[in-house]
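Service request form, structural biology core

Requester: graduate student, group of Dr. S.
Request type: structure prediction, single chain
Budget code: on file
Notes: please return the result as structure tokens.

Sequence provided:
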Amino acid sequence: MVRPLVSAKNLEDVKIFSTETYLGRLLVELRDAWKFSIGDVLVRQAVYDGSSSLDLVSIACPVPKKFKVVHIDDLGMPWVKQLSVKGGFGTRFSPLAETWSYGEYRFSVDPEQIDSILLGYKYDPRIEYKQLRKKGSKHDKTKT
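Core staff response, request fulfilled:
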């Protein structure tokens, strides 16, 4: 009888590595959740004690912060730049692993981008900001 090379204890060690170590959790996230392509627009959720909330630009501008995948390196790591609500990119160019490591953040494709693909309309990552500005200007006109 041939003994298996990997025991049940070894398999338990593998499971502990992927669920309880920093590097293991990062690799699992990269494998399972970060199946992004260049050009995808992402939103970021902050995760606190099992609950999450969308990362917003500010209290005065309650639209989600958005990031665009601009590069994927040889390791498969997506690199992003933050999109400005007024158009264009921020100056910071960072890998998702870096932004993931500074806090508990999860990234997903912008739901508006998914809707535009499914419903067949032109995607604009600034649509929430434009709608907010339009509501604000109507409100300003009625105040005077």
